[in-house]
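One thing: mind reviewing this one?
=====
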Amino acid sequence: MDEQPYLTFRGLQSESDHALLLDINLASRGADNLPGKVTLQDIANALAHMDGFTPQQGILIASLQDAPGIPIGYSRLGWYSSNADTRLYYQVSFLRPEYRGRGFWETMVKMNEQRLAETAQQHSSIPQRHFQAWATDRQQDWTQVLENTGYRVVRRFNNMIYDLREVRLDPFPAGFEIRPVRPEHMHAIWEAQKEMNAGLFENVIEDWQEDKFPVWLAAPAHEQRFWQVAWAGDQLAAIVLARIDDRENEGRKHKRGYTEHVFVRPQWRKRGLASALITRSLQVLKEQGMDEAELGVDSENESAAIGLYQKIGYKIASVDTWFRKKFE
């Protein structure tokens, strides 16, 4: 560390700061060689969907103390409950490349923790409280900063890609029926997704309160025509909620779809239902002109999902790492 990292911090002042955040974000992502291009709309969307903070509360912009008019980085803060006993206070942080490796990012992390700890004091007590952050395998500088400030790896997630040039449909098991998704089915699909998320490491309890159903229902990512939903009589048995992000594909110059939210209710597992729905989702994405499909899976998934996906033909393309640090 070749200089003492003295920084000043301020919050988001107005919408005019969005362009500043975008400039820092692009510089930081470029240094990490992250794919895709973030836009002003992406910045606005992120600020409109913050967890537990308003943009004015949850954005911290860092500047050099002797040059307060020249911001060098910013952080976005949030918090959520992953289960009844655990609340997580997280930070997402960006720093211009010319200021890395000099202690500035570590100073930003400590300021973020101070703001998060102040927020935690206003919340009810809970057995487990952790600071949290995450990094892709390309974000080596950020990973080093987290390790330098006491964060430790708690979980890894594999991002897996399927080449859609050849899709093999797995047999569809007897006793089930795939039905077109209708408006009256949406709450049952919501309940299945809620049930699935309850067992996941990255669950967000606050997202699955009943008053959030209209928000979920209005999500622009929903492409019901791509979804594969299997029924056993009048009971929803399994889902695969495929989607295509046209704007992302245009920005990243590829044709990729997603096979997400793969879930079979326990009483209908080990009958080939998951692979049947996944391969049909892949076929739908191929018919839409996609070249590849992506899904993410917990490396410690207890249902042996990674083995299933590899058997179907998915290959691990990258790894995301989640870090935590206990409150002192």
